[in-house]
Design brief:
The protein has 460 residues and is mainly alpha-helical. Helices cover 59% and strands 5% of the residues.
Length: 460
């Protein structure tokens, strides 16, 4: 092996240049296709709408709890603090194993301290609070830790409310109508600033947040959420977009109340989850450099590689390259090669699983109550979903996927011979699915976005 080959293997977590092509070229092509050929999409809603119910089956209630614990640790917008959690059977009680996309040692320690204090508060309940009062205390504790994210949510909710008011005016709705009045009510409740610079201003800010959440809860009980959802489904995108945003950010705020109440309810169902516990914070993985090594990479080259790997005899796929270039696909691919933001990282769910694998803790009996589940603060992305599906042997279940594709995703480091072989086989299975997705995305673009182009006659 040459020095340059050894350097490349070390730099890219053990992946060869061919493996980088297999993994990232189909991803780039599909991301580019979506950028030029699809309508806007809106965030997955399941996390907002799900709430704890006493009649939940045990496993579902446990998964709800794990997801909520991960969510409240995801305290910044932007993706770096996205978190995953597995609960193992520790030496005495449960062992909470947390991982995040990209938290440094200081943030991991702060998160660990938060989890420690929260579990102690709920498990020991030192003031002997009743359930409702304890739920409020837990909510305040969660809101305080998530204040940075809440600042963004407040701005976005204020903007969404104003856009929906404008939408009502364009519909010529009477200001006394229920939708109009509900929006004015919301506008008044979210008209405050978040300031935690001093203890007295922090208490006021958290109190204002709680008041807003109560207002959103009241609207939900009044059935206003059904009206918002109906308008969000309007076939006219310019009419529905403001309501989609409003629905999403109302759900974000409400999710904190559901988390607080759910955590307290779970403590009554399984008190042992809050006693004699351990907390393990897995250090975040390192990013790899931009994996696109060819400066001349184009859609034509990617399609050639897809055809070669699939051993396809159909030349029609290659004929799409000229049309893709005219659509600007090649410009997007070139920009990705130069992008300093294209630095793939280890997603939290994979990070936690790889920690368990390294420590030989993937067997069913290693998990608390033998429930082998890795929860997350967000639904799993498509690549994480494919990764866990491709695993063999003892593998955990994970959150359902929102099917979003992110280019900043990487496999764990692997340089050992036997493990490297297993990883290579897993990569091949991933790449096969990604090639199929890219081809399907191209077909969809042809049939939907360009029905009158010459490409519409292609069958892929």
């Amino acid at each position: 092996m040459s020095i340059s080959q050894a350097w490349q293997l070390e730099t890219f977590g053990g992946l060869t240049s061919h493996q980088l092509e297999l993994l990232y070229e189909p991803i780039l092509l599909e991301v580019a296709l979506k950028e030029v050929g699809t309508l806007p999409t809106y965030p997955y809603e399941s996390q907002s709408t799900e709430k704890y119910k006493a009649e939940m089956l045990d496993l579902k209630a446990f998964q709800f709890y794990v997801n909520k614990m991960a969510q409240i640790c995801d305290n910044e917008r932007g993706g770096d603090t996205i978190s995953a959690l597995a609960i193992l059977q520790g030496s005495v009680g449960p062992n909470y194993v947390f991982g995040s996309n990209s938290k440094d040692a200081k943030d991991l320690k702060r998160t660990q301290d938060f989890v420690q204090a929260l579990l102690d508060l709920v498990g020991k309940n030192p003031e002997g609070l009743q359930t409702s009062a304890l739920g409020k205390r837990v909510l305040w504790f969660i809101l305080s830790f998530n204040i940075s994210r809440l600042k963004e949510y407040l701005k976005l909710l204020q903007k969404a409310v104003q856009e929906c008011l404008e939408s009502c005016k364009r519909r010529n709705e009477d200001e006394t109508s229920e939708p109009f009045q509900s929006l004015l009510y919301l506008a008044a409740k979210c008209n405050f600033k978040l300031d935690i610079s001093e203890s007295n201003t922090e208490d006021k800010s958290i109190s204002d947040c709680e008041t807003l959440i109560k207002a959103i809860t009241n609207l939900e009980h009044a059935g206003i959420d059904a009206m918002i959802s109906q308008r969000a489904k309007d076939g006219e995108i310019t009419r529905s977009e403001p309501w989609c945003k409003l629905r999403h950010f109302l759900g974000r705020w409400l999710s904190y109340r559901k988390a607080a109440l759910g955590i307290v309810a779970v403590s009554e169902r399984w008190p042992e989850l809050f006693l004699d516990f351990e907390i393990t914070m897995v250090p975040s993985g390192s990013r790899i450099p931009n994996p696109i090594l060819r400066s001349d990479l184009s859609s034509a080259i990617i399609l050639q590689h897809i055809v070669a790997e699939e051993q396809s005899q159909d030349s029609q796929l290659l004929q799409a390259a000229d049309d893709l270039k005219q659509m600007g696909i090649d410009d997007i691919i070139s920009a990705a090669h130069l992008s300093r933001k294209f630095r793939p990282l280890l997603h939290a769910e994979v990070l936690v699983y790889e920690y368990l694998l390294r420590n030989e803790q993937t067997a069913l009996e290693c998990y608390w109550n033998r429930w082998n589940y890795i929860g997350g603060s967000k639904p799993t992305c498509r690549l994480c979903h494919y990764y866990f599906e491709a695993l063999e042997g003892d593998k955990p279940s994970v959150r359902s996927s929102h099917n979003n594709l992110y280019r900043n995703w990487r496999l764990p480091d692997c340089h050992e011979g036997s493990l490297s072989t297993v990883r290579d086989e897993l990569l091949s299975r991933l790449a096969r699915r990604l090639r199929a997705d890219a081809s399907g995305g191209l077909e969809g673009l042809i049939n939907v976005a360009l029905p009158y182009s010459a490409m519409s006659s292609l069958i892929i």
